Amino acid sequence: MQSVHSMRKFLLLMFLLVGLVVLNSKGMADSVAMRYEKELEAFKQSDLTNPPPTSAVLFLGSSTIRLWKSLKKDFPGIPLINRGFGGSTIAESIALIDTLVFRYKPRQIVFYAGDNDIAQGKSAGQVTKDFVDFEKAVHAQLPKTTILFIAIKPSPSRWKFEKEVREANRSIQAYCEKGSNLRFLDIFPLILNADGLPRPDLFVADQLHFNSTGYQISAKALRESHFLDSARRN
Length: 234
Prior knowledge:
Blueprint: H1 2-35, H2 37-49, E1 57-61, H3 63-66, H4 71-74, E2 80-84, H5 90-95, H6 97-102, E3 108-112, H7 115-119, H8 124-141, E4 146-150, H9 162-178, E5 182-185, H10 212-225
Parallel strand pairs: 1-2, 1-3, 3-4, 4-5
């Protein structure tokens, strides 16, 4: 009898814990949606006026993706959707995963995020855990979708975070190399000069975001990875 009573208490506790997790996840999703309300509404209107391609390559992440205006020119013949938003974090992409990922059912995802996370105080381990959570959430719904993580870039304005960025990149790369339907694109060394410092000439005035030359280097690296070859339609 005691055993049955204990089991009931355990099941009730588990039910309450699951409920709290669900409520917390919904609360975060609502909070993030409010923060990026204007951008999400713009995406919605864009989908209505220009329906996105099916089985496309989804570019997702923070402002490094959002400001990549030359995507279609850089990758001709490849169906693309750009859903970079704000100065977002990996956790915020997870919070909006229904709206920004599952809605489009992409065949591939090119994902860039992490430097805002570190600048806001997250450790390399926390950033890696967030990416693992993102990957697992995507593959739970879209098991055949391949995800490519672009390495967190070095930038002059955030060079003080170099050690944490390098560690996050190493950890995420190791995870990608052991997983399935995962790739890692290491652009970090391509952004450094002969002295091992970030090249200021690859960034706009804020020394945080790429200029056109910085994007050209990233695009070239992505093309040479052949990650997008299977998505080409001409």
